[in-house]
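User: Structure please.
Assistant: Input sequence and predicted structure:
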Amino acid sequence: MAVKAIENVNVSISPHIRKPISTRRIMLDVCIAITPACIAGIIAFGWRAAVILLISVLSCVATEAVFELITKKPLTIGDFSAVVTGLILGCNLPSTIPFWMPALGGVFAILIVKMIFGGLGQNFMNPALAARCFLLISFAGLMTRFPETIHTLFGADPVTTATPLAVLRDGGTVNIREMLLDLHNGCIGEASAICVLIGFVYLLVRRVITPLIPCVYIGSTVVFVVLLQLITGHAADLNLTFVIVQMCGGGLLLGACFMANDYVTSPLSRTGQLIYGLVLGLLTSLFRILGSSSEGVSYAIIIGNCVVPLIDRVTIPRPFGREKEKKIRKEGQA
């Protein structure tokens, strides 16, 4: 009797989606959620920030479209994933860089990190953050130069020459009320902590993400930073201002809310997500306290992305009946 071959199908662990949902809808929600941070960046840094965001998005969309036309694959730019990559990349760039840099970053993000590995869902690291790290390594001077003047909600601030994290690292003082309620220096998407949190709440309400990874990431970063300060003998520097600046003064909020919980590059199980958040928090604190730079979110998430397959291998629960199946097969072969 002929036996019909059954094609193997890969099924991931729960939770499985049980209602109609599309990549396009998810990506549109992310675009809406990150818009307040983009607007705050444009207000703070002016027209250059708007142009950099636009170039970044257009570069990502054009690269994906050209690649798919050349390789004769179906066009996927309608799912808005390239737009999301462009917005996230633009938000992670300073407004002082030349305009060719977001274009180069967009090509790297889509072509090298995303499309060569098979497109959306096949990339092993976040394309936007990989592109930022590429630009940061290649053009460190340009990527760490921030505006000397920004436009706050209460007028121009001509003395803002460094990010709050850099000011704190150099022993300066940071006005917490102004940093939380007003705009501050940094990359385009880091200008307003409140605007980033508004987008985070929107994603939670729309159930695009869960709070586990962001909350564990931010919380563990604070805990590890405090522990490292104590270990390195800098306990005198610990105060409420120090903790708040570590949370809201750099790219931690933006990275935790919009990048760390990327569907493709984060663990599948809740246990894995918990471990992942702790790993990101530890790496970020090590870079910030022991490293030469006051930041470290991008590198932490990229390294965390590379560890995700191992985390999944350890934390994914074993399918019910697998051991019994193996035992039966061995008995049948004996």
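The radius of gyration is 22 Å.
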